[in-house]
Write a structure and sequence with these properties.
Cyclophilin; mainly beta; CT_A_B; PxpC; ATP-binding; globular; hydrolase; Putative allophanate hydrolase, subunit 2
Length: about 290
């Protein structure tokens, strides 16, 4: 018998785990959860291994029905979590009875929530991972209303901690720590990346987030050096900051491609990458040199 029925996936929901590391030389991206910090926290709250597959829900609206008793935790973006229309809290271990419905509202900040179920979401693996890669098409398809999901065996100990602090008020400007990238010398002034604020454009998904200068900003875009030739396309890590010819940096997230010949001028820290995965259009960003 299936354990979960998807009543509504919301705007977009997929199955994610830690991804497919170590296959980039074959042209296979890592993929996996966009916000690994929130995903692994959700698994710890239900006693799973950090690698267990979860549901990644984008912009809320997901509703699922428990077909049997389940232990569930929801983490990530600032959303309200309800069981049978009763608030149960974000970042909290919750027992959901058979027939009950869990719902996640649209976030008040951030964009991605992670729904972990004790035992892990049990779908078929592709190249060692259950993750949906939206760029390559590997892994299970995005969730749809009516989907039935299995849950794996409960093998881990009961979680020692069943509640995690939740950030109630996000910062007005999200600070992203970054170190110099391998092609920073291809910019006319690489320091311009660290000067002033950037704004998240509407061009954002699991592949990447494009940044622009806010209206009225007197800080420059980023310019390539005229005396440096074109680059061959290269593989890059999650969190790479790439600058195309228009001077608007792109933050590479979980489903990113190779560079396409544009320079990677900085790389986000792991913590900054998790924060970048929660950015939505209109958010302000400032880089800090690490």
């Amino acid at each position: 018998m299936s354990a979960i029925e998807v009543i509504s996936p919301g705007p977009f929901a997929t199955i994610q785990d830690l991804g497919r590391p170590g296959l980039a030389h074959l042209g296979v991206p890592r993929s996996g959860a966009a916000d690994l910090v929130s995903m692994t926290l959700a698994n710890r709250l239900v006693g799973n291994r950090e690698s267990a597959a979860v549901i990644e829900a984008t912009l809320g609206g997901i509703r699922i029905r428990a077909m049997r008793g389940l232990v569930i935790a929801v983490t990530g973006a600032g959303a309200q979590v309800r069981v049978d229309d009763v608030p149960v809290g974000l970042g909290t271990t919750v027992t959901v009875a058979a027939g009950s419905e869990l719902a996640v509202s649209a976030p008040t900040w951030g964009c991605r929530n992670y729904v972990a179920v004790r035992g892990g979401i049990d779908v078929g693996e592709v190249l060692g991972s259950r993750s949906t890669d939206t760029l390559s098409g590997l892994g299970p398809p995005p969730l749809s209303a009516g989907d039935l999901l299995e849950v794996g065996a409960e093998t881990g100990p009961w979680p020692a901690v069943t509640h995690a602090p939740v950030e109630a008020t996000p910062p007005t400007v999200v600070e992203l720590d970054a170190s110099a990238g391998p092609r920073s010398g291809h910019l006319h002034r690489v320091g311009d990346l660290m000067v002033g604020e950037w704004e998240v454009s509407a061009d954002a998904d699991r592949v990447g987030v494009r940044l622009v200068r806010p209206d009225g900003s007197d800080h420059p875009l980023l310019h390539h050096r005229a005396d440096v030739g074109e680059l061959a396309s290269e593989g890059v890590a999650h969190g790479a900051v790439q600058v195309p010819p228009n001077g608007q940096p792109v933050l590479f997230l979980a489903d990113h491609p190779v560079t396409g010949g544009y320079p990677v001028v900085a790389v986000l820290t792991a913590g900054a990458l998790a924060r970048a995965a929660q950015l939505v259009a209109g958010n302000r960003v400032r880089f800090r040199s690490r």
